[in-house]
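Hypothesis: this fold can be encoded by more than one sequence.
Test: take the structure tokens below, design a sequence, compare later.
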């Protein structure tokens, strides 16, 4: 099954906690602190891998978590860093942050990679908090938080040439004749419901050709599977527009040609700007006195396109068409290619996290509730049996203006202050 869209959740590893430890050795009465730092949590990394062709695996597994960092240990030993989690995707995959809708990375080539969620930093051991005043710190720093995200993966096929046209005009047949691909072929609408790829080898060159499933009117609005199909045309360099010039389906070839180009134009405009060769297929089904091909050719060439008469099942005219496609691709290789324009996710802003040090105050009845990311980290680092550690927590709350905020909200001596699941009685100094 070809799967070209998936939603998953990712989570990096939490940083390991710093260790609280003191040297305990014979004949060393004042050994001092020796708690080591925690290890950094593992990152979540996406990388493009040529061995993959579909997002099928993400249908069965939707949650991905990197390894947490190990806690620090005594004797100043650092905790082990968490293993990075590497998620492999096919080249051509666009990784999107679901919350913002912004593109995090467009993984076009084999080996392209990026860090989608960074692991939390390891917490500092108590050896880092020793100073001239505090000789025996009885607390350490908690590990940094993990990052969680919901991710949307979208796969856009990477092919040199895309075959476009209405259903049942002979695209799959042309692909099978021109390449080693073996698509399912039959005489009914929407024979192809997923894109097929094949490699064309002609003269001294080769290129990848994709059979894009048949489009219908209104495809650009999402009719049928239109949007799913149109996005696969975006990365192609050249289009071969296959038209049933015999009208075997009861449609007019010129109208078919115009309707497909209208869908390309309505999708965004740039699809219609791609170079396009027109394959007038099913020539073997036209009677000698039928002028439909001549009328079609005159009309299309009047629009500036080159028309190639072919009969795909009997391989008539196919080599000439493929030769023209190869020549056009060589010309395009010498021209600068227009890159896709995305609104990219701001990783720098994400790392800064302006709200990280803010302390938020909420009054619930007679209780003042404090919250904040840095507050949570310091709170988790606090040793409630150590007066120095408790003083450090209070000074942080006071320094960030939370005491003043609570007083403005009516805080008085004896009132209750709550942080996480702990409640404290406020006492004026």
């Amino acid at each position: 099954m070809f799967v070209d869209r998936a939603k998953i959740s990712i989570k990096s590893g939490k940083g390991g906690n710093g260790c609280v430890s003191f040297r305990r050795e014979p004949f060393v009465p004042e050994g001092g602190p020796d708690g080591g730092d925690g290890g950094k949590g593992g990152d979540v990394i996406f990388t493009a891998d040529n061995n993959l062709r579909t997002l099928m695996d993400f249908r069965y597994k939707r949650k991905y978590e990197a390894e947490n960092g190990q806690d620090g240990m005594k004797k100043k030993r650092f905790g082990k860093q968490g293993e990075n989690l590497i998620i492999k995707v096919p080249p051509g995959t666009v990784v999107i942050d679901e919350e913002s809708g912004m593109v995090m990375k467009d993984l076009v080539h084999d080996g392209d990679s990026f860090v989608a969620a960074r692991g939390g930093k390891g917490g500092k051991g108590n050896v880092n908090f020793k100073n001239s005043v505090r000789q025996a710190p009885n607390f350490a720093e908690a590990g940094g938080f993990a990052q969680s995200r919901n991710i949307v993966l979208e796969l856009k096929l990477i092919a040199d040439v895309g075959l476009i046209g209405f259903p049942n005009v002979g695209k799959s047949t042309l692909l099978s004749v021109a390449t080693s691909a073996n698509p399912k072929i039959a005489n009914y609408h929407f024979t192809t419901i997923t894109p097929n790829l094949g490699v064309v080898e002609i003269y001294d060159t080769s290129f990848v050709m994709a059979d894009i499933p048949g489009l219908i009117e209104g495809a650009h609005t999402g009719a049928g599977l239109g949007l799913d199909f149109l996005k696969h045309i975006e990365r192609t360099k050249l289009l071969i527009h296959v038209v049933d010039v015999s009208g075997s389906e009861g449609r007019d070839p010129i109208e078919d040609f115009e309707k497909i180009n209208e869908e390309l134009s309505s999708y965004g405009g740039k699809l219609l700007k791609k170079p396009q060769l027109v394959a007038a297929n099913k020539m073997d089904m036209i009677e000698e006195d039928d002028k439909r091909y001549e009328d079609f050719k005159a009309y299309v060439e009047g629009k500036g396109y080159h028309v190639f008469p072919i009969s795909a099942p009997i391989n008539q005219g196919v080599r000439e068409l493929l030769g023209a496609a190869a020549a056009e691709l060589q010309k395009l290789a010498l021209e600068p290619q227009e890159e896709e324009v995305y609104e990219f996710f701001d990783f720098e802003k994400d790392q800064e996290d302006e709200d990280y040090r803010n302390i938020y105050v909420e009054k619930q009845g007679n209780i003042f509730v404090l919250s904040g990311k840095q507050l949570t980290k310091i709170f988790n680092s606090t040793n409630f049996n150590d007066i120095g550690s408790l003083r450090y927590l209070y000074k942080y709350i006071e320094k960030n203006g939370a005491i003043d905020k609570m007083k403005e909200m009516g805080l008085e001596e004896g009132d209750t202050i709550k942080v996480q699941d702990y409640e404290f009685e406020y006492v004026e100094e």
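DSSP finds nine helices and 18 strands in the chain. The first strand starts at residue 5 and ends at 11.
Hypothesis status: open.
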